[in-house]
Every structure is written in structure tokens, then in C-alpha cells.
Design brief:
Helix content: under 10%
Largest sheet: 7 strands, mixed
């Protein structure tokens, strides 16, 4: 069964950190372009970060550059999003996506940044 399962979301204070995980099954993350998106209430789903297949080149939205890091553990077939210096505007549901000849989405994990 092809699926992505996100975990690691939660409530964190401004300035804090979280690490999101995206575990894949049914396909190999290293052969897919893997991305993190986020969607805040009443807003569109926006691209946050991408890691390319094989070579692993990364790209980030301007709003998270220098604070977020996307990475991949091929042995665990898992993609991560390390989020540091979190701000209230980072509050959203975060989704993992895998894209090759097909697109696979995870179910999302809630991140809330609030004091």
C-alpha cells in the first residue's frame, strides 16, 4: 500500500523547535521528489520545502529559509522537516507529498505556535 504518514506536530511556544517526520511505505523516498506543504485556516496550501530525488538538492520558501531544514533518511525511508525559531505565523497543518510518476499525500499534522 502506497502511503505517507506524518508525525511530530504539536503545540510549541514562539522561538521553539519541532521536527516533523514523514514515513513512506509502498515506494522509496529517494526516488521521489519529496516536499512539505502547509495550510493555515482559510488559506491555500503552500509549498514549504522540497528535496529532490537521488542528489538531494533542497529548496525552501522565503518565509522559512534559515529556520527550516528538510532532510531524508533513506535507510528509514523517511523525510524530516526540522523547524527552528518558530513563529505564530508558522501555525498550520503540515502535509508531506511525494511526486514521481504519481503523487502521494499524507494526512497532515497540526503545528501550533502560541504562547
Amino acid at each position: 500500500q502506497v502511503q505517507l504518514v506524518e508525525s511530530g506536530g504539536g503545540l510549541v511556544q514562539p522561538g521553539g523547535s519541532l521536527r516533523l517526520s514523514c514515513a513512506a511505505s509502498g515506494f522509496t523516498v529517494s526516488s521521489y521528489v519529496m516536499s512539505w506543504y502547509r495550510q493555515a485556516p482559510g488559506k491555500e496550501r503552500d509549498l514549504v520545502a522540497t528535496i529532490n530525488s537521488f542528489g538531494g538538492r533542497t529548496n525552501y520558501a522565503d518565509s522559512v529559509k534559515g529556520r527550516f531544514t528538510i532532510s531524508r533518511d533513506n535507510a528509514k525511508n523517511t523525510v524530516y522537516l526540522q523547524m527552528n525559531s518558530l513563529k505564530p505565523e508558522d501555525t498550520a497543518v503540515y502535509y508531506c507529498k511525494g511526486q514521481s510518476w504519481r503523487v502521494v499525500w499524507g494526512q497532515g499534522t497540526q503545528v501550533t505556535v502560541s504562547s
